[in-house]
Design brief:
single chain, 14-stranded antiparallel β-barrel, mainly beta, globular, two-stranded antiparallel sheet, 9% helix
Length: 388
């Protein structure tokens, strides 16, 4: 039997809620940005997870769809299929998880297409009004399906456009009321740069850079009387460099920053509470892409605190074994997520297996992925494309 209290924890994680605060007590920590369907931001593959959830400027792989789909135009093998499994809140329950399936196809020298299906299962919950009542078994879930087209605009630069359908079925159903799922859509625009291999004194090297503006789309609403919530429109930018020591050994170092392009909650009307009557709630999703860079009541210093950053590195040997590590940081007053990650990858023939593990370094917040070993399996096959 699942504890009913776990339901409340799940809803807090996935609904856009904000506790009211008295005007004199409203601080930066009361203005943490939350969105609906945040499962879209959960790292869906173990390779990126091993480098602190970053992938916008890392080498292309089967799971590039979530991080920077423009990378597919640089894929060195024609096709790839990936399957991943991410346990969630494993220290509390054993039936919340994220599953993902990826596919890409580089159809020619200049272009590629890709698709991903992500399914977030929130487990089973028993709903009853009395202890004697026959329980109603609820199975809340969310999923997203997206398609990408990537085009190489030059020898070293590509861009991609992604369309995404989102369905969220987490509204609680009672014995008297039928609940309906909420639907929305999003668009991603991404770009990727990869240099030629450059000869230095003691090693060769390659630069990479990328950006991705993801989940551009309308707010999501669960019923006519309910509150509309922003989906997690996000700006991601990163850069990396590969130290190619010799034909067998490569060390890549990468850095990345993220910022949610949704309004900062604030008490704009001065009534002492932060709620749907304030200006931030009425901002349009498209307008928020621009205004979110300057709307924090604390000014530029608070805007900086809304930016998360990550650093990571990957050592690979003969393209058959890889070891990874990374560190992720978020401001103490804007979520306090801080963690160290480790990962490894093994490749044999067309098959690659990746694993990763997360160690939370935050003293205030327990990471929902703490204690979880994440797995990814991918297969690459078809024609080989030689880059440079």
């Amino acid at each position: 039997m699942k504890k009913v209290s776990l339901l409340l924890a799940g809803i807090c994680l996935f609904m856009n809620t904000k506790a009211n605060a008295q005007d004199e007590n409203i601080t930066e920590s009361d203005r943490v940005i939350t969105t609906a369907v945040p499962f879209l931001m959960i790292s869906g593959d173990a390779r990126a997870s091993g480098m602190a959830d970053q992938g916008v400027a890392t080498p292309v792989d089967t799971y590039s769809q979530q991080w920077n789909p423009a990378k597919y135009a640089f894929a060195e093998q024609q096709q790839g299929v990936g399957i991943s499994y991410v346990p969630y809140l494993r220290e509390l329950v054993n039936d919340i998880n994220l599953g993902q399936v990826n596919y890409y196809n580089r159809i020619n020298e200049r272009s590629a297409f890709a698709g991903t299906f992500r399914y977030f299962n929130l487990g089973e919950i028993e709903s009853r009004q009395t202890a004697e009542q026959q329980p109603l078994i609820l199975k809340p879930n969310q999923f997203a399906f997206d398609l990408t087209y990537a085009l190489r605009l030059g020898e070293q630069f590509s861009m991609a456009v992604t369309g995404r359908y989102i369905r969220s079925d987490i509204r609680l159903q009672t014995t008297n009321v039928d609940a309906s799922a909420a639907n929305s859509f999003g668009v991603d625009i991404s770009a990727f740069y990869q240099s030629e291999e450059i000869a230095y004194d003691d090693f060769n090297g390659r630069w990479r850079g990328g950006i991705n503006i993801s989940n551009i789309g309308p707010k999501i609403k669960y019923d006519d009387a309910g509150q509309e919530s922003f989906i997690p429109t996000n700006f991601k930018a990163g850069a990396g460099f590969d130290f190619i020591l010799d034909a067998e050994n490569t060390i890549g170092v990468y850095g990345e920053m993220n910022k949610l392009l949704v309004p900062t909650p604030s008490d704009s009307n001065g009534d002492g509470v932060i709620n749907r009557e304030d200006d931030y709630y009425n901002e349009s999703p498209f307008g928020a892409i621009f205004s979110s860079w300057t709307d924090a009541p604390g000014g530029f210093s608070e805007e900086l605190k809304e930016i998360t950053w990550a650093l990571g590195a990957e050592y690979s040997y003969q393209d058959s074994f890889a070891f990874r590590m990374g560190y992720f940081n978020e401001s103490d007053v804007k979520g306090f997520r801080k963690f160290l990650s480790l990962g490894a990858g093994f490749k044999y023939s067309i098959t690659r297996i990746d694993v990763s593990y997360l160690f939370s370094t935050s003293k205030a917040v327990t990471n929902p992925l703490e204690g979880s070993l994440r797995f990814s399996l991918s297969f690459n096959f078809g024609e080989n494309y030689r880059e440079y």
